[in-house]
Fold:
Amino acid sequence: MPDCYLCGCSIAKGAGFRRTVQVGERHGRSRKPFSLFPSRLSSSKQFALRTVCKRCADEMDAEEAQRSDLDLDLVKTICVALVLIAIVLPVIIVLSSKR
Ligand SMILES: [Zn+2]
Structure:
């Protein structure tokens, strides 16, 4: 019987869900030989497919849906800002050229 990778609860055979989860994180300094600039801190996260229970899978799906909603909101906000600039900018140019 497999255990949930995230919470550790036991999962009945065939009742698990496969999800991509973070399995590690690596921190280090990138070193470039003969570089004039100091070494930079870098970090990378490792992800892999693991078996999780229904509760953890549902939580991950809800977080993912929330994240994509936020991305969509950001895109909408940028579009509205661009439209407003496209409307306001010609007016400003016309008004400033009349002076
Ligand atoms: Zn779990």
Summary: The mean pLDDT is 90. The chain has one domain: 17-32+39-98. Residues 58 and 64 are 10 Å apart (CA to CA). The longest strand covers residues 17-30.
